[in-house]
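Hello,

Our lab assistant flagged a job as stuck in the queue for most of the afternoon. It eventually completed. Since we weren't sure the result was trustworthy after the delay, we are filing this so someone can double-check. Below is the sequence as submitted and the structure that was eventually returned. Let us know if re-running is recommended.
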Amino acid sequence: MVQYTIWRLLIFAVFLLGLLWLGVHEIWALIFAALFSMVTSFFLLARPREEMARQLEEKVARRRAEREQKLAGQRTDEDDEDAEAEGWDQGDR
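-- returned structure --
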């Protein structure tokens, strides 16, 4: 994920420095460098972007599974407590 971000910034910096070196006004250089780097990154960084998306998807799935396990464990404890409470109420009568 960090590698993808570094590549994106590097591509932007190369375009920005190139445009500034050519004498383009700073604001236009920023705008064009952003546009050119977006298009270039879309094609050149497709594989790293897909890998980053896959890693994020796996991370979200893992967290979701952990949360579901935790909730399932909490439900079991609560169900046991409810059963105990009901048993005591019936035994007291």
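-- support follow-up --
The delay was a queue issue, not a problem with the job. The result is valid. Residues 47-93 form one domain. The chain has a mean pLDDT of 87.
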